[in-house]
Amino acid sequence: MSLVSEVSPLQRIADDLAEHGWSQQPLFLPYIPTLELATECRQRASLGELAPAAIGRGTGQQVREGVRGDRIQWIEPGQSVACDRYLATLEELRLVLNQTLFLGLEDFEGHFAMYPPGAFYARHLDRFHDDDRRTVSTVFYLNQDWQTADGGELRLHLDAGWHDVPPIGGTLMVFLSAGMLHEVLPATRERMSLTGWFRRRAVLPL
Ligand code: OGA
Ligand code: MN
User: Fold this and answer.
1) Does 3 fall in a domain?
2) Which residues have C-beta atoms less than 6 Å from ligand 1?
3) Residue 21 belongs to a domain with what CATH number?
4) Residues 12-60: pLDDT tens digits?
5) What's the gap in Å between 135 CA and the centre of ligand 1?
6) Ligand 1 atom closest to the CA of 115, numbered from 1
7) How much is the pTM?
8) Is 13 contained in some domain?
9) Which of 72, 68, 80, 75 is nearest to 50 (CA)?
10) How far apart are alpha carbons 89 and 168 in whole angstroms?
11) Domain assignment present for 63
12) Domain limits for position 94
């Protein structure tokens, strides 16, 4: 019997979040499922299904390309085998996070996102002022053969400076939505992800 206990990848994410509020998982999914999601994202984009992303909620929503230049489409259960598998994996993660961190996460909402070359998302928090349900942010990258020179890093603003994450296909980033200031830097090529949020029950009245 090994003296070193095996920590599952999902448990490692929970431990990272507890320790410093974010987790970077370089090979969260293997090549094929990542490629299937990338293919679906690209197909949906070429069919014109991705729309300019808005900022804020409800009547406060507006599109401002100076703040956020991506196009998105929300994913729904049952739309494809690849998305359903991804949702099933994130459901496992939701349960582990609840067991370990007692976050009371109730559901997940997610969308494909595509940033054209040069697009960015200025520094922000993922929690809205008038809706505090978003609790844990997840960003899964879909980009094959991403090179350092392509740019497009996710920049986490930390107390001690910053941490840059290149959007390499197969990488999952997880962070606490309320406290982690972050931004997306411009890239020289198209940048795709499947981004989402685990939500808890509303505490503020909606
Ligand atoms: C977002 C976001 C980060 C990324 O969509 O809110 O911050 O790396 N995305 O795409
Ligand atoms: Mn964000």
Assistant:
1) no
2) 113, 121, 126, 139, 154, 167, 182, 184, 193, 195
3) 2.60.120.620
4) 999 999 999 999 999 999 999 999 999 999 999 999 999 998 777 666 6
5) 14
6) 10
7) 0.93
8) yes
9) 72
10) 19
11) no
12) 9-52+69-200
